[in-house]
Task: inverse folding
């Protein structure tokens, strides 16, 4: 189980605890990673607002770099995954377009043949590590913990690009992993909706209302914690939660964990090594519930 | 196949004015659509069940509703594709619009927003003697968006409309694109200036709900992104949205990766200092918690950045 690791900008920037926690958990799951240090940002859908083809060129370059190594790509961000999956679909389904993009890559002596598979860590957990592998790694089942999944739009839509037809289990991958870790899944309507981050600088009121709606809804349904495979969602749901609560004249205080942080807790790792002290909403109540020192 | 239809019902004449769920047990055929099932219920079990439908062939756009948590056309959705033997189908009216009765919603707000974007050709210059001529090549890219049947499904599941009814919404914005990008229209810039305002093209979150649910492949969000690109190209007044996209692209060109603090600083700019300052408490809290990447707050360029810059140059030259 070896992958070309695409950490994404946010795990190396605004959410360093995500990178830190992935580094802690992956060796214990039989995964090997080669980090793609020369790959660029995917464009996150923002660059694509300006120029989709430029986004496709940059992503094709990343796919070609992985192809050269003969490795599939592992992402840890729903947005990176979605943007790359969409670009890959466009490139694979139009040979003329792929040839045009390859002409641009030729100066760097790169060619993309269309063979690179890109998969999010949560899919790799289920499809490669497998249920048995996960269960073997769990040394501290999160019994009694009620966890609300929050996917991030691009890990749910569009399903065609994300391969949901070939791998139907991807639609509920997060719930499956939460259950395998021994925690209870809290279902709520907003789990597949937008966290609001893309419009934080454009329409802060709407963005924060989305944060408040999702976190309050999860809490109302009994969640102790929210868990997300998307660091961009984390930036808003965790980072902006207190501001969102202030806007709604309420208190929320729902800890939001990155998926590898939750996984690490179930694997017996301590809170510091998982970077839990870096989460802005204190995860103290979660740690107390699973019997880990903060 | 034994099927349970769990339908959200609402009768405006009831005293409680509250909606409720009602279950109907029905034998469905493998060829039955959800609409077939609902009509069977209305004809053989409960004639008070109210729904809107007409063509039964995904053309008229009348039977938009939410089936198992997602908006779609009931006439295009096979029961067998949604549930297995003995399963329960959840049917609700569309969201983001008032319910008139049971599965019938009030589309007046929908049409008002469509009218707001002036969905008719506004050519410039002298009127031609014959038709306004456009080459097939210049119209090809509009085929998808012209396939919109105004069913309201995208509006129902729009996550922005859920928190802000002032947002124009995916259907009206896709319709606006249809005219902005029409080679015969002479008012693209005026239209884009209107769409640039609050509640317009920059308020979309890019969540892809509208792309996923559209029964006709219109891809409303993709049209909204195309409107943004056209707005930047035609230099309509900058907004936080357009600056965000411009700065984002420039940072990738410079460093290969995103530099979040720089993105925030340059998106708001010194002209919007109060907004920038309002984020300081969060930034201070993040600093105290040690939310600092190894490389420090301001990122370095990735190894081999010259390759990225060259690709940017090539693409710019192509334009």
Result:
């Amino acid at each position: 189980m070896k992958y070309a690791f695409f950490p994404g900008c946010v795990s190396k920037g605004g959410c360093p605890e995500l990178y830190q926690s992935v580094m802690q958990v992956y060796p214990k799951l039989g995964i090997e990673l080669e980090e793609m240090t020369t790959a660029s940002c995917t464009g996150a859908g923002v660059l694509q607002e300006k120029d989709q083809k430029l986004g496709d060129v940059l992503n094709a370059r990343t796919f070609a770099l992985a192809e050269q190594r003969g490795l599939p790509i592992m992402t840890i961000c729903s947005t990176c995954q979605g943007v790359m999956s969409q670009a890959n679909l466009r490139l694979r389904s139009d040979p003329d377009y792929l040839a045009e993009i390859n002409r641009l890559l030729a100066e760097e002596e790169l060619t993309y043949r269309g063979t690179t598979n890109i998969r999010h860590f949560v899919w790799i957990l289920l499809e490669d590590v497998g249920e048995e592998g996960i269960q073997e790694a769990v040394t501290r089942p999160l019994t009694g913990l009620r966890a609300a999944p929050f996917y991030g739009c691009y890990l749910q839509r569009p399903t065609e690009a994300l391969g949901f037809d070939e791998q139907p289990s991807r639609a509920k991958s997060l719930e499956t992993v939460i259950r395998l870790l021994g925690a209870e899944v809290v279902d709520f309507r907003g789990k597949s909706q937008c966290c609001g981050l893309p419009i934080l600088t454009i329409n802060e009121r709407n963005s924060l209302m989305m944060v408040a709606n999702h976190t309050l809804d999860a809490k109302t349904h009994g969640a102790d914690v929210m868990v997300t495979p998307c660091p961009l969602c984390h930036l808003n749901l965790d980072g902006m939660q207190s501001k969102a609560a202030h806007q709604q004249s309420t208190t929320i205080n729902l800890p939001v964990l990155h998926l590898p942080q939750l996984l690490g807790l179930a694997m017996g790792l301590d809170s510091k090594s998982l970077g839990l002290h870096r989460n802005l909403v204190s995860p103290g109540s979660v740690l107390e519930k699973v019997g880990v020192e903060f | 196949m034994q099927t349970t239809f769990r339908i959200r019902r609402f009768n405006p004449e009831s005293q409680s004015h509250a909606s409720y769920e009602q279950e109907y047990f029905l034998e469905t055929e493998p060829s039955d659509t959800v609409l077939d099932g609902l009509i069977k219920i209305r004809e053989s079990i409960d004639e008070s069940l109210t729904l809107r439908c007409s063509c039964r062939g995904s053309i008229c756009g009348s039977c938009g509703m939410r089936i198992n948590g997602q908006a779609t056309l009931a006439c295009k959705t096979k029961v067998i594709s949604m549930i297995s033997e003995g399963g329960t189908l959840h049917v609700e009216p569309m969201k983001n619009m008032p319910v008139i009765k049971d599965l019938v919603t009030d589309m007046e707000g929908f049409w008002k927003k469509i009218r707001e974007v002036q969905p008719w050709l506004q050519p410039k210059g002298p009127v031609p003697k014959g038709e306004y001529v456009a080459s097939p090549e210049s119209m090809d890219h509009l085929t998808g968006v012209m396939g919109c049947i105004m069913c309201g499904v995208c509006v129902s599941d729009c996550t922005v409309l859920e928190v802000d009814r002032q947002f124009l919404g995916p259907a009206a914005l896709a319709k606006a694109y249809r005219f902005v990008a029409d080679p015969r229209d002479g008012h693209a810039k005026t239209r884009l200036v209107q769409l640039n305002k609050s509640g317009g093209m920059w308020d979309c979150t890019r969540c892809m709900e509208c792309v996923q649910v559209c029964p006709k492949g219109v891809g409303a969000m993709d049209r909204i992104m195309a409107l943004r690109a056209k707005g930047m190209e035609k230099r309509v007044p900058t907004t936080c949205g357009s600056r965000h996209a411009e700065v984002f692209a420039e940072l990738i060109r410079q460093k290969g990766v995103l530099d979040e603090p720089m993105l925030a600083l340059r998106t708001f700019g010194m002209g919007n200092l109060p907004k920038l300052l309002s984020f300081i408490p969060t930034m201070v809290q993040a600093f105290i918690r040690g939310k600092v990447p190894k490389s420090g707050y301001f990122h370095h360029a990735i190894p081999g950045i010259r390759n990225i810059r060259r690709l940017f140059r090539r693409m710019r030259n192509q334009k």
